[in-house]
Design goal:
It is found in: Nucleus. The protein has 362 residues and is mostly helical. 49% of the residues lie in helices and 4% in strands. Strand 1 and strand 2 form a beta hairpin.
Amino acid sequence: MGRAPCCEKSGLKKGPWTPEEDEKLVAYIKEHGQGNWRTLPKNAGLSRCGKSCRLRWTNYLRPDIKRGRFSFEEEEAIIQLHSILGNKWSAIAARLPGRTDNEIKNYWNTHIRKRLLRMGIDPVTHAPRLDLLDLSSLLLKPSAAATSYYPTQADLDTLRALEPLAGYPDLLRLAASTLLPAATTGAAEQAQLLLPWLLQAQMAQQSAAAMAPAPQSAATGGEQFACQMPGLVHASPTAQQQMAQDHVAATCVQHASYDDASHQLDYVSPALMQMASTTTDASNLQQQWSSTVTSSNNYNNNNVNSRVSTPSSSPAAAGRMNSSSTTKTTTYGLNASGDVIVDDAGLLDMHLSELLDVSDYM
DNA sequence: AACGGAACCAACCGCTGTTCA
DNA sequence: GTGAACAGCGGTTGGTTCCGT
């Protein structure tokens, strides 16, 4: 049952706070502390409800609040923490000293969210957007009959079947361009090869979601992949990505005897799904996949500890990475204990379990 | 200068989880 | 065990400011 609004009583003021009201509230809290918000307004001589006083204090009047524009570092931290924590603004704010959840929420909705959308990144999942994927590119027209090619009913059915998977456009393009047998030129034939393992990957994804429902919609691909690799459940996205890449390489080696690409796909697809779901940059994914496949023959256990840097979704950060600037780039991830890992400049993992422990929110 | 739409952000609303009588 | 009171959170609203025409 929802509770009655605390400000229903008549006579309580609403709307913007006046400097006099601010003064009263600050003076009272300085003298008596925060205490009971319900009784505070009366004691402080304010015609406001306690809830309004609490919001005004926590979002505006608190002395430790940092005003002004967000720095590049703060912005990057918000994006990375949001990719881990989702819309848990208070949890994100707890890791950004001087910033309130309300401020971060507003900044996200007015700046970051829009920019991610412009970049073709879904601000909820941090994955490439479904609506930007050209599914028809999957069905490569036979070159000899390109001008007279019409999709068959089977092609259209295939497109419809693939649509739910289009949240991973990089994966789909990659699969179409890299994994299909070179000798296969027919669109329907390619789709027939592609479909089974994509569906398999989707089913794995769905069963993972059913087995371990994510706390909120921004669940990472790592969580989805965890059903196939249970050890990944508490691994950081970066670690999951690396483990998935290693898994791909291992499975490539393991099943290298299959000269039929479709058989390899059966084994490689789940790991590839993980690579795609933890990667938001197409070229990076292509690079990872290419290097994984080409190096798979040399695969050894030493690779397990190598690192794959998480691509930045921030133009500002991208600029920093491409320049010779000495500005630090900080990467957030989750370690095996569920702690946020802060990776400065990709050189060092700092486990700030006390400051950055997000295990409570996972 | 005037207007309208976009952007911004403080504040509110409604809900959930916790505490306590 | 139950329900009211309370604190806190995330989503939304609406007033204000900015900016382009």
